[in-house]
């Protein structure tokens, strides 16, 4: 599979899962550490519009704001640093993630809005949490709160709200779970 280049100013769906569908997060501590690494390695390279960390996979909707080589290397550094720490913490060796992180270039605004909804409602979709609004490791709460106090991961909140016209429409469309036109089978994350 040829990997999509991460072109500057373009939007992407970034995702991956654990090797053989295994866990990549075993605790809240693992998830918080992964989010800290995202801040460290990506904060000046991409804008994050949405994210969700599940036990065996993650999703991000991003916009690339730096040149491709820097962004690709930063993602590599993030995943390598996390895998090394995870392996040490859990006394394991070998690959943690499937071969390469997957990326899909987003070509239109409707798809991007649907993707953000899918990412934010992923805990409910997978039956992990019956109320996606209360799931701690997704960007939904970060988007709807007034301040960024105690936020684990800053997101491009203003840009996200503008994509949905306003916060009320953002919440409404999440509640309706919009007719997602994503090819969920292609994600192969179950």
From TrEMBL:
Pfam families registered for this protein in UniProt: Y1_Tnp
Signal peptide positions (record): none
Residue ranges annotated for the Transposase IS200-like domain, each copy included: 7-122
Stored SUPFAM superfamilies: Transposase IS200-like
Coiled-coil ranges from the UniProt annotation: none
Cited PANTHER family: TRANSPOSASE IS200-LIKE DOMAIN-CONTAINING PROTEIN (PTHR34322:SF2), TRANSPOSASE, Y1_TNP DOMAIN-CONTAINING (PTHR34322)
Name of protein: REP element-mobilizing transposase RayT
């Amino acid at each position: 599979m040829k990997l999509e280049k991460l072109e500057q100013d373009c939007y992407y769906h970034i995702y991956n899962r654990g090797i053989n569908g295994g866990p990549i997060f075993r605790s809240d501590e693992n998830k918080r550490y992964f989010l800290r690494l995202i801040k460290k390695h990506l904060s000046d390279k991409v804008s994050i519009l949405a994210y969700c960390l599940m036990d065996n996979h993650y999703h991000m909707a991003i916009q690339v704001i730096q040149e491709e080589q820097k962004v690709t290397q930063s993602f590599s550094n993030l995943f390598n640093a996390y895998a090394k720490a995870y392996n040490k913490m859990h006394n394991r060796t070998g690959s943690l993630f499937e071969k390469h992180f997957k990326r899909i270039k987003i070509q239109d605004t409707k798809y991007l809005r649907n993707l953000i909804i899918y990412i934010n409602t992923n805990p409910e979709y997978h039956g992990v949490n019956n109320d996606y609004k209360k799931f701690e490791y997704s960007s939904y709460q970060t988007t709807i709160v007034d301040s960024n106090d105690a936020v684990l991961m800053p997101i491009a909140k203003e840009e996200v709200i503008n994509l949905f016209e306003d916060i009320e429409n953002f919440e409404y469309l999440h509640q309706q779970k919009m007719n997602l036109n994503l090819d969920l089978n292609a994600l192969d994350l179950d």
